[in-house]
Amino acid sequence: MALDLPLHRGACLCEHYELRVSTRCLVDDLDLPASATFADACAREIVDAFRAKRYQVPISAKTVGPAAGTKTLYHLGIGDDLRGATWFDPIERVVWLCAAGFHRSGEDEDFFRQIRPQIASGAVYPARADHRRVLAERQLRFAEVGPIDAERLVAAARQSPDHIVSGLLAHEVHVRVKVQPGSDLDAIFVSFSTDVIAGSPLKLNLLIRCFDPAGEMDPDYLANMPDEPAAPNELVMLIVRRAPER
Amino acid sequence: MIDVATARPGTAAYSDRHQAALFRENTFQPTAGSGMRLRVLNLEGGFFELGVVDEMLMPVARGIPSGAYGDMSVVVVTSDDAVANYVRYLASSNQAPLWLSDSLEGFAQHAQPAGVLPESEQETLREVQRLGGRATAAQLAEGLTIEQNAAGNRLANLERKGYMFRHSRSKREGDLFVLPIHSSAWSQVSQTSTIGFEIPEEIRGDVVRLAAMQGKTPLQLVAEAWRSYAEQNSEAMRTERRELTRMLEAGDEEGFLTATMPDLDEQAAEIAKRQSENH
User: Is B50's Cβ below 8 Å from some Cβ in A?
Assistant: First the structure.
């Protein structure tokens, strides 16, 4: 169900990409502040339709304006007269609601008439501020949601000590977790691919921070998960911490 | 006649666009030659982000119609609807000869064009498939009971779109049109699998040699280097984690972003620039 999709700040998180509303569309077309969250924007019927119609497939069959290769704008419609234009950016993995308005055949304020010059000038597409917001919010999301996801995975792994539990941190980084529960201390094994670090020590530390936000632990680094060899590009860390009270 | 190779990306390329680009470069090499090629990109069983699929296929989808890859057709094997939809989008928006199949075993019989083709051309593909993967205009005309000129036009249109390859022959014999996905047209089949790794290009050769000397793989060496780094810097990293958490708890988001993404504005400007160049 579209309504179950997680929202975080300006994004609605789908399986393979995010849905977002461009700042220009928020302010000029939807009469919302530039800082509006996706949840705020869902108060507008066209944004709710955007979420419902684009959460599985990022494009539609009809275009707004002529097909323009990777810059093609796709038609979004609800009811008799609410219309929108969406653009899928596969590189940044975002489907943008770029414009919204009312279809008024033959009138000056008709959505399709008004969007024409914006398409011609390129103003309809997301601007630099939009891209900044995407990058910043993804970083904040990893810092905010990552530790919550990490705790959830650790709790699940503690429930099944014979198994390795796999999952995503902040909708982004795949990790595997195994817990060996003790009476006082738990041994928590976490493995992840070195690919996700992308050559950045800071990225590595942000990932460790998901499991140690307070900066209290000194993880050990191992070659393998218990009873299972790690993949060649996997890092395994071991955190020992107090077991939750039973 | 047609050189066929299947390739399956390693797990490193599932979510990393750099790895995907390396994989693409290995798998789909531009050519100045005249050989006919079919490349089968096997994404079966993997969980691929669309950005990664884009990195693997977009330059290829753009490059084939421009002639950069010579005579090449590409089959994408996937059972992921989102990936399949994206491949359809790529094929249609670039007029690229991409095919889709939901299994590797059956692609020669069941692959479908990912681009939108008129019914007459779809019928032509089906008929050439029935005729054994190759046909002249005269054979197609007979099979579909249409005029030979009309059959020739259909085949020529499909060749122009890259869904057929043409062998030029004498006027008396008539040109032979070949369906690239049909196994009867294949001259050799090879399999490749690429596992990329994140090492700067300049030192990659050294890392590969060093790993070989130690009886390890380059990936193991990279993982060991990270382990060593984290162990040697554990105290500084712990302090950094504490500081980042303090900033977030104090609501100092800009401070957090400055500390963790000092080039945030430049990155945003770079994306905006790249996109405006495409407008």
Answer: yes
Q: Is the pLDDT of residue B166 over 60?
A: yes
Q: Is B184 on the interface with A (CB under 8 A)?
A: no
Give the H/E segment covering residue A143: helix A128-159
**B chain contacts of residue A128, beta-carbon cutoff 8 Å:** 268-269, 271-272
Q: Which residues of A touch B256 (CB under 8 A)?
A: 139-140, 143
Same domain, B181 and B223: no
Q: Looking at the structure, tell me whether residues B110 and B237 fall in a common domain.
A: no
Supply the pTM of this predicted model.
0.64
Kindly tell me if the per-residue pLDDT of B165 is higher than 60: yes
Residue A140 located in a structural domain? no
Distance CA B270, CA A231 (A): 35
Say whether both A111 and A15 belong to one domain.
Answer: yes
Closest in A202, A204, A223 to B260, CB measured? A202
User: Within this chain, do residues A152 and A112 fall inside the same structural domain, yes or no?
Assistant: no
Please tell me which of the candidates B16, B82, B229 has its beta carbon nearest to residue A201.
Answer: B229
Of the listed ranges A143-157, A206-220, B64-78, the least confidently predicted one is B64-78
Domain that holds residue B249: 201-278
Query: Are residue A122 and residue A152 in the same domain, yes or no?
Result: no
The pair phi, psi for residue B236, each rounded to 5°, is -65, -40
The identity of residue A8, as a single letter, is H
The confidence band for B182, taking pLDDT boundaries of 50, 70 and 90, is: confident
CB B76 within 8 A of CB B99: yes
- Asked if A173 and A119 sit in the same domain, the reply is no
Subunit contact B278:A91, Cβ cutoff 8 A = no
User: Domain boundary at A72, A95, A126, which?
Assistant: A126
DSSP assignment of B263-275: THHHHHHHHHHHH
Better-predicted residue by pLDDT, A77 or B192: A77
The CA-atom distances, in angstroms, between A5 and each of A35, A55, B88, B119 are 20, 8, 25, 38
Cross-chain residue pair A194–B51, CB shorter than 8 Å: no
Instruction: Looking at the structure, tell me whether residues A161 and A193 fall in a common domain.
Output: yes
Check CB contact under 8 Å for B267 and A234: no
Domain with A74, as residue range(s), is 2-126
Bigger pLDDT: A177 vs B173 = A177
- Both B25 and B113 in one domain: the answer is yes
